[in-house]
Amino acid sequence: MSFAGILIELTLMPLVAFTIGLFMVLMMRKIAAKIQRRVGPPLLQPLYDIIKLYSKQTQTSHGLLHDIGIVMAVGGYIAAETMVPVPGMHGIADKAGLLTLAYVTMIPSLGLALGVGQCANPNGSIGISRALTAMLAYDVPFVIIIFGTAWFYGSNNLVEVVAAQQAGGIATWGVMQMPILAIAGLFSLYAMLGKQPFEIYVAPAEIATGPMVEMGGKFLGGLFVMQCFQLFTASAIYVSLFLGGGENWPFFIAKLFFIIAIPMSLAFLFPRYRTEDVLAAVWRWPVILGLAGVWLVMH
Amino acid sequence: MTTPLDLLLFTAAATVAGAFALGRWRDIAWLTGAFYIAQLIQLTGLDLPSASHAGFTLFGQLVGWQMDGFGRFFAIITVGAAAAATAYMGGEWGERYRQAGHSLVWLHGALAINVLAMLLLLAGNDLIALFIGWELTSWASFLLMAQGGERALRAALRYVPYAMGAAMAVLGGIVLTHAFTGTLQFTELAQRVPQLENWQLALMVTLFGVGFSIKMGLLPFHLWQAPAYAEAAGAGTSFLGAISARMGLFALALLLVKFVSLTRLADLEFVSGLFDARDLIAWVAAFTIVLPTFTALKQNDARYLLAWHGIGQGGYMLLGIVIGDATGSAGGLLHVFNYATYQAALVLSVFAVLHRTGTADLNSLGGLVTRMPLTFLVMLMGIIGLAGLPPMNGFVSKWLVYRSLMIEGRPLLFLMTVIGTLGTILSVYKLIHNTFLGQLRLEHEGIREAPWSMTIPMLVLVGIGFVTGVAPGLPLQWVNDAQAALGLPVLPHTLGGVESSQGGLDMLWVVGVLFAGFGIGALLFYGVGNRSKRIHQLDNYAGGHFLSADVRYHYSDHFYAGLMHRIGPLYRGSFTRLEEAVASANDTLAALMQAWYRQRVPMLTLLVAATAGLGWMVLQ
Amino acid sequence: MIALTVALPLLAAFLLPLLPALARQFLGPLVLLAVAAFGLCLAGNALDAPSVVAIGDFRPPLGIVFYADGVAGLFVFAIAVVTLLLWPCATPNGQPDPQITRKHSLTLLMAAASCALALSGDLFNIYVFYELAAVAGYGLAAGSRTPAAQVATFRFTLLGSLGSLLALIGITLIYFRAGSLNLAHLAELAPSTLHDPLGLAGFLLILLGFGVKSELFLVNSWAPEVYATAESRVSALLAGLISKLALLAVVRLLVLVFPVPEASQLLLVLGMLGILTGELAAYRARDFRRLLAWSSIGQLGAAFVAFAIPGPAGLMAGIAVALHHLMVKPALFLLAERWGGNLAQLAGAARNSPIAAALFVLFALSLIGVPPLPGFWAKYLLLSGLAGEPAGLWWLAGLVVLTTTVVEAVYLFRIIGTLYGHQQGSVMQSRTATTGSGIFALLLVGTALSAPLLAAPLQKMATQLADTDGYVAQVISATITAPQRSGTAP
Predict the structure, then answer these.
(1) How far is B528 from chain A (nearest CA, A)?
(2) B29 near B87, Cβ under 8 Å?
(3) Nearest to residue A190, comparing CAs of A17, A30, A28, A33?
(4) Choosing among B379, B432, B507, B514, which should be mutated to test the A contact, i.e. which has the most A CBs within 10 A?
(5) pLDDT given at position B534
(6) C114, C469 in Cβ contact below 8 A?
């Protein structure tokens, strides 16, 4: 593909991802509302929220690094999202590969951690300590899954992985070929999204003890934007690995929303895990399933 | 007629002479620094392989030196690390070191001796030359470790039994090799060693392997390394940390790849068809990644934390080389280079903080980012490299190792390497958080940025780390030479990384997109919405209470409480206990032996021995 | 010339007390210089062809034979040089010693006996000179006049005498079996008469007897006591020189008369145990002199192990180990003159006496075998000799050498750590001791630098020493006519 072509894709992909991400947030809120028998927010509420946060009067910055943390968090996911192929656009998926993608998704966490650290709020630091521990937890099954799929398709290149799945319809989807890995992947995705019972590091119920404690105004707004990208990226990775990727946009979007809906629907069934219990939970079944899945794939 | 290698060794020897002869001169660092740069230039222009005229024949053994691409790769890193350390100690740091009552002459001298010894080791062309270099390196690094006070000396003394054990294992290996093959020349060994019988090969690999692993700090012989490296004088620590232990890796790779060959190594099977010597080494490397990394996570002294990571990072290098395909071995070798750049920078940044604040205790610092922004930048880039995240070079070499494990189908080893990386991320965040983020202590309010003599070498090092991260093709050129010299398959590469239909890596694009993402993020942050108001660093509140600056609220101790709650019981100190057990067994034996020499009537022993001997002879 | 090396110092030893004071000062060193020169000539000539002298022209097996091959010449040279360097002088605290003449006499006597021991070609002669050296040794050891020294020397004397007695019994046994004491003669007779339990029993007794002086395990428990209490120079002489000569006598016997596996394995096992006990005991030593004593036991154990290896390879290794120890241990004992006693008092001594401390580091590095110092080559030869033998006991010995070297490094570096500690030191090294050990250090470094040149002569010496047939032929052709020979041959 020509250089200019790639540049155009790289411009388009974040826009699409952001839009879809916004609707995913909306859907999550709607699901939560349905479960709690509320009406739920209107269609454009996520967008309003972002505008509101950005235009707040009080914007407290604790220093340059506080700002840069937000920039890194948003920018990292924007970059990550261009490494996942979407229908009609490959971005730089074939130049980076699955492994790189996995590591690029850690950059936002690091950026957020730096930003929170600069705030000098001990509660924020505790939140980061939990967030990083949770990352250690969910990345273990995640990389097992990456290994399994890469081995199965003989490639680290997501474009090829998707192409191989689309070759024979639903029968060649990853979820059909490697059901156990797909289940483990769902677990890992669930933990990665930080929904109950894995929401210890965001800790929305006790905002005073979490990374968000010093985040107001556009700092929180930036993180909101980041979340949109994160939802899109995480679900797109899962869809590309197990659900045949994107043949066309409607199907692709349907799959994305479906994947996000699963953890959201389950979330309210559980109370919250403590940090050490997150470790125990994620390191037990998902890892066992993942390793079993890899073993099956390799034999 | 002197050869280029002669000239190189001569320059290195001249550096030693100059460091000692003119050591009291105030600007000695400029001289030795210039000498290191000269060596670096000679090295990069060296024709491969380059032989030396120096050499002799002794007891029928030809002892000579010749440098090939493999040796040169390590030599470049060695000399580069020495140059950075010299620049660092040339200014205010060295002045302070001297004022504290230490000898700067010996520090410069020890560094120069280290470089010379390592060059001799790297250029050895037979096992005797290798051993000469090996021993000189060991004792030179002892000398460097012992500089800088009583604690450094204690830590260095702990290194002695390990160093000597390594040396003796290697010497044992050498004499056995000679007995088995009748030669000690590298070229002949490469032909003859693979033809040995399995038991001979196993014995040889065990002896050499143990010896070389001790230097490398491979499990379970790693305990000496962290204190010895951490307690040394700052510039010395950075040199030791960056390259010293890699001499073990050099020798190990020489043994496993060049002499024994990896395919032959796989013939030494423990469980037929399932587990062979090669797997064993790979697993030892994997455990060396994980266990020391998680030990680093528990350290409260920045120097120890980095030293423990140094041990852990060695595991990636060995693992890559043992996997042995083009990708993995390139990754393992490239990691030596990459690791040296960021580890040296990190150590120097920690010592810059130590220079300004007087402590490296992670519970006594905090909030220094506003005071020492350049040092912070160095540490930030350094930890990104150490953690192996894009865009720094550490990511590229680790990526190559992961990729080769994927290609070769080693899921568990792959998992271990990733767990090591994740543990590193946690650990290095603690490092930067406890040092530079969080609450600024009142007593540190007047701290200034480290002087330029310290920041420039650090910035250059991380600059190299960044450039070689964006364009890994640059060092991969040297790696290819090293691979070819070892007889490994050579990794074809581009400037940005590796091209492959099964998923390559183009760092130019990855980094470009990453920074574009940051740019968009910055636009969104700074371009949209209300302007943010910067408040003073000491103006904080938490949980509804205003925090005054004299209250210590920096969250630093026991940083990963939740994680430790889960994995804490796994820290059993087994290796420390093993070390203690060996030491006390030795003590007990020694006491018994002394008892023998305290016997009251030695004549009786003599008579008994004579009678017994007679009786035995007669009865026979 | 051969006889002169023995006769000159012997004569000087007896004349010394009778001479005027000025002559007393210079006679000894002059004689020793002469002997050194003779030794060098001998070694040089003997490398091409060993020379044989029948003393008083009495022919073996009745007469006494001096056999000067390369090793003997080298040892004569070493004896003279080392004795010269360790020449008794003022007491450590600088006062003139009233006993000095007696000490000079005894030292000369010891040198004479040692030369004779190195040169002697028959067993009885060896025994006589061994006794002479021993007596001189007792006298010197008692010289420091402290009660502890007296007790230690008394025990040493008792043990030594018993040892001599055993050796004598052994020699009698051999004479009883073979009817001769001439080594060349015995070499011919041995396969038929001595390679049986009784003959070996003779060897064992001689080994144990001579082993007392050569610090052989089982009979070496005197060494730490004596070395800790005697004057440092005496300890240096005993540990450095006399032990090697007793060893040389055993080796000659082993090579010429008992080249059987049992004998060498005996040597191997005892040597191995010597290394183990010596080095490990030194590990816990808290006293500098005792530490040196134990280390010396360990080193001699290594020499025994080396000589146990059959063939020239082993002999070469043995000579190298012995010579290296001869260069290093006396120098260390010289340093012990002021540094003797509790190790803790050495703290920070490097600040007061930097040169002495540096010398200690050099010797320590050579002892543990750091290349390119000579200690490494000695250890390399020893180990490659052991590795060349079949697996089993030999390799076990190699393992013992390797592991104990680690122990050795630990205790030596512990001292280095103490020396370079950061306290202000309290003891000051004396100038004479520093100079003395400095000369040894120069020798050591010289050997290291000229190692490639020295290798060939060493190899030649070892071949010569191993060449039993050559020895027999030389001695017989020089002294015995054909008919006599056929009369005693089986």
Answers:
(1) 7
(2) yes
(3) A28
(4) B514
(5) 86
(6) no
From C208, C222, C402, residue closest to B171, measured CB to CB: C402
- What the block records as the tokens of B223 is 């305990």
A28: exposed, middle or buried (Cβ count in 10 Å: 0-12, 13-18, 19+): buried
Q: Which residues have CB under 8 Å from C161's CB, separation 6+?
A: none
Q: C432 CB contacts (<8 Å, ≥6 apart)? A: C89, C90, C337
Query: Nearest Cα to C30, choosing from C14, C8, C10, C15?
Result: C8
pTM flag (> 0.90): yes
Q: List pLDDT tens digits, range B401-455.
A: 999 999 888 999 999 999 999 999 999 999 999 999 988 888 888 899 999 989 9
Task: Say which residue, B219 or A292, is predicted with more confidence.
Answer: A292
**pLDDT score at B544:** 67
pLDDT at A1: 65
DSSP code per residue over B493-541: -BTTEE--TTT-EEHHHHHHHHHHHHHHHHIIIIISSSPPEE--TT-EE
Mean pLDDT of C69-84: 85
Chains B and C touch (3+ CB pairs under 8 A): yes
Give the model's pLDDT for residue C488.
Answer: 38
Q: Which residue has the tokens 């002697």?
A: C120
Alpha-carbon distance of A247 to A97, in angstroms, equals: 19
Find residues 133-192 of chain B whose CB sits inside 8 Å of chain C.
135-136, 139, 146, 149-150, 153-154, 156-157, 160-161, 163-165, 167-169, 171-172, 174-176, 178-179
Q: Which residues of B touch A121 (CB under 8 A)?
A: 540, 542
Pairing of strands A60-61, B50-58: unpaired
The four Cα atoms B297, B299, B303, B307 give a dihedral, to 10 degrees, of -50
What's residue B352's pLDDT? 93
User: In this structure, are residues C126 and C117 in contact, taking their beta carbons and an 8 Å threshold?
Assistant: yes
* Continuous segment of H or E residues that includes residue B74: helix B69-89
Tell me, what amino acid is at B188?
A: E
What distance in Å separates the CA atoms of residue C32 and residue C87, rounded to the nearest whole number?
10
Cβ-defined contact of A218 to B532 (cutoff 8 Å): yes
Token pair, residue A137, equals 């937890």
Q: Which of A110, A69, A117, A17 is nearest to B521 (CA)?
A: A69
Distance of alpha carbon C76 from alpha carbon C39, whole angstroms: 5
DSSP 8-state code for residue B440: P
- What's at A165, amino acid-wise? Q
Can you count the helices (H) and strands (E) in chain A?
12, 1
Strands B540-542 and B533-534: unpaired
Nearest by CB to C218, from B139, B179, B609: name it: B609
Round to whole Å and give the CA distance between B115 and C87.
43
**How does residue C92 score in pLDDT terms, banded at 50, 70 and 90?**
low
Domain boundaries, chain B: 280-520+546-571, 579-619
Q: Using an 8 Å Cβ cutoff, are B422 and B339 in contact?
A: no
With contact defined as beta carbons under 8 Å apart, do C174 and C199 qualify? yes
pLDDT digits (tens, 9 = 90+) for A166-213: 888 888 888 888 999 999 999 888 888 888 788 877 766 665 667 888
CA nearest to C96, candidates C105, C85, C107, C88: C88
Per-residue exposure over C7-29, b if at least 16 CB sit within 10 Å of its own CB, e if not: ebbbebbeebeeeeeeebeebbe
pLDDT digits (tens, 9 = 90+) for B272-301: 878 888 899 999 999 999 999 999 999 999
Residue for token digits 């202000």?
A: C424
Contact B610 C166 (CB under 8 A): yes
Instruction: For B553, name the nearest residue in chain A, comparing CA atoms only.
Output: A122
Q: State the DSSP string of C210-227.
A: HHTTTT-TTS-THHHHHH
